[in-house]
Amino acid sequence: MLPQQPGNNNPNFQMNPVDPSSRRILDFSVAALALVATSPILIGASAAIYCSMGAPILFRQKRPGLHGVPFHIIKFRTMRAPKPGEDMIQSDGRRLSAVGRFLRATSIDELPTLWNVLQGDMSLVGPRPLLMQYLDRYTPTQARRHEVKPGVTGWAQVNGRNAVSWEEKFELDVWYVDHRSLRLDLEILVRTVWKVVARDGIAHAGTATTTEFMGTVAVDA
Questions:
Q1: Residue 125: which residues within 8 A CB-CB, separation 6 or more?
Q2: pLDDT, tens only, 70-116
Q3: 3-state SS, residue 168
Q4: Rounded Cα distance, 189 and 12, in Å
Q5: What is the rounded (10 degree) CA torsion for 136, 141, 147, 150?
């Protein structure tokens, strides 16, 4: 069952959207301050990755952004590269290093994505940017998650993260698209801090992170 959404019991409930320029100023300011504040953590994580796995320290991957336009997301590397013939998603658990496990459990691996926010490819809050190959697997309703910029955190992340099904995540993402506001974004940011501290919903049951999304029709079949 999906969590209770704010204002669901009030038919007249309405959230006021934030002006895009104001949102951009907020995103840039908070991301810049966060990068400065977490610089000791960034340096320590970089050193730990280099000592345990070598170069490269950062992981870059093409992801769909606003309206599905691709950009390169930047994160800390937490896995070794796949061996020849090794499936990238199915081998997640085997390729995840001890340092990588800690970085994911504490969400430190996500800190470099603040640079994506500075560049304007991402927002602080929005649907998480997934894989390019998922674009053709969405239903028309699920594809609406790309009507806003992807976020470092989002409504789905504070309501289950990787512990809920893909369909539930996308339903939460689309709900956010229709109801986003500064008030909701602030609520999500505060709840994200708690989720990170509690290390809640980091992985889907039985996987290192989550299962591959094969499409809603394929799942139902």
A1: 151, 152, 153, 154, 155, 176, 180, 184, 185, 188, 189
A2: 999 999 999 877 777 666 555 566 778 899 999 988 889 999 999 99
A3: helix
A4: 25
A5: -70
Please provide the size of the chain in residues. 221
Pairing of strands 58-64, 70-76: antiparallel
Joined together, the tokens standing for residue 154 give: 């989002």
Which H helix or E strand runs over 75? Answer: strand 70-76
pTM of the model: 0.81
Tell me the mean pLDDT in the region 117-127: 97
> Are the C-beta atoms of 182 and 17 separated by less than 8 Å?
no
* Domain ranges (residues) in the chain: 20-220
Q: What are the residue ranges of helices labelled H in the chain?
A: 20-37, 39-53, 92-95, 98-105, 113-119, 166-179, 182-198, 216-220
The whole-number average pLDDT for the span 6-27 is 64
Report angle CA 100, 52, 89 to the nearest 5 degrees: 40
Helix, strand, coil tally for the chain in percent (to 5): 50, 10, 40
What is the amino acid identity at position 43?
Answer: I
